[in-house]
Amino acid sequence: MVLDASSVIRKVAKRILTSEDMVVVEAKNSAEAISMASAQMPDYIIVDAGMNEGQSEDLIRQLRALDRKKDAKIICCMTQVDLASMMRAKRAGADEFLLKPFDRKQLMSQFRTIRKAA
After folding, report:
1. Radius of gyration for the alpha carbons in the chain, expressed in angstroms and rounded
2. The whole model's pTM is what?
3. Residue 68: pLDDT band by 50, 70, 90 thresholds?
4. Among 111, 92, 109, which Cα is nearest to 2's?
């Protein structure tokens, strides 16, 4: 699942990931993401860290609380390295971080890293 307010970011991520034979769904806001994850928890979730103050951390906590039997890997997507934000996201349950804008090489490198850690 790719959750980002930007349709461009969602489409770029989806295009890259589907070319790697992954099934990708898009969510444009937190409510949509929670609804989709409640129906079927994805294996990987890319969350836009640039949502309203604290909203991304709240969303990560809500996703983590949905279903402990299937622990999705959550990648927090940021526009800049901000250690305070990264620590808040990590405490909320984020597994990894990715900087925007990203390209195919960066996104796939992050997925290879997170798969190895699983």
Report:
1. 13
2. 0.91
3. low
4. 111
pLDDT for position 31: 92
pLDDT (tens digit per residue) in 32-63: 999 999 999 999 999 999 877 678 999 999 99
Residue 40 burial by Cβ neighbours in a 10 Å radius (0-12, 13-18, 19+): exposed
Please report the domains of the chain, with CATH numbers, ordered by start residue: 2-117 (3.40.50.2300)
Q: For the purposes of burial, counting CB atoms within 10 Å of the CB of 92, is it exposed (0-12), middle (13-18) or buried (19 or more)?
A: buried
Q: How far, in Å, are 3, 22, 30, 96 from residue 62 at the CA level?
A: 14, 24, 10, 17
- What is the structure's pLDDT at 53? 65
As a whole number of Å, the end-to-end CA separation of the chain is 18
- For residue 75, which of 62, 93, 87 has the smallest C-alpha distance? 93
Q: What is the Cα–Cα distance from 5 to 109, expressed in whole angstroms?
A: 23
